[in-house]
Amino acid sequence: MTSPSLWQPFTLGRVELPHRLALAPMTRNRANPDGTPGPLVATYYGQRASLGLVITEGTQPSDDGQGYPNTPGIYTPAHIVGWSNVADAVHAEGGALFIQLMHVGRMSHPDNTTHHRQPVAPSAISADQDMFTATGPQKTPVPRELSISDIETTIADFRHAAASAIAAGADGVEIHGANGYLLHQFLSPNSNHRADQYGGSVENRSRFVIEVAAAVAEEIGADRVGIRLSPSMPLGGINEGDIESVRTQYTHLVGELATLNLAYLHVHHVGDDELLRSFRDVWPTAVLVVRYGRTREQIADDIDADLADIAPLGQFALANPDVVERLRNDAPLNDVDPTTLYGGGETGYTDYPTLARV
Asked: Which candidate in 45, 75, 181, 352 is catalytic?
């Protein structure tokens, strides 16, 4: 049986949540080629609205923010219309929608974007990763280093995307500062070799993340903004150094972000519970924690240990649109079909059976 702590209501920013579960952001590559989410996307998120807090897949704030094929955007009028249908579907089922703003930085390939330009990053250092493209896996190229003017434009892009999300009816946004993407690239010394105010020291490497968060909070209200971080996460060729280096970097960053009074901090956690506890001690609002490989019996462990307020679900929610009902009733869970995770249509997306259909 699941822990009783999962079923306690919670206030997050401006929204009232019925319990402590949420939908974790997961890329599904099912937007239209122009980045507009279509009707199937609305169905998918509406099906999972019983999770309360629905955090969407990574959604690019600009053309340069795209890395993978058929990922959604939130910066054009068409995008706003598409996402408004998603927001309506989620709200109709009683959920709250936060759109994750994800700029991939160097984790891109020109073949996957409409403009076919070189990717951008803090420094001209390739991630040296295999990137899926229409013609098969290709290595990520060497990116173009962002100028100071480019950085200012990128911050403005995040601001505009956040405003667009609210215009679409979303309840808020989550800034993706994790998993090897642009904000994480600024934080990591092996991807950020800059010699200006955005590189070098811990304070300088943190600056871009803080400025993005401050701009988005100013634009739509801090209580509509979450941020995701992943200390020590090696995705995308990131290497943040030894444990003490990571703790120094993130203690500073989280301390500065805490002063913005954002709605929540979302930690993709890879094992340093001492660092996680330090976040909990300084963060003034909600903390969300997701870990790889949790069993259903472990979902509430971080809540019960007072390390988190909310436990976002990934694959459990992907394969079980009614995962909340299944957990409440100790019912069996569907297994994920790994062949249908990325791209395609309704198969492995909106056709997982519910208990009522079994």
From this structure: 181
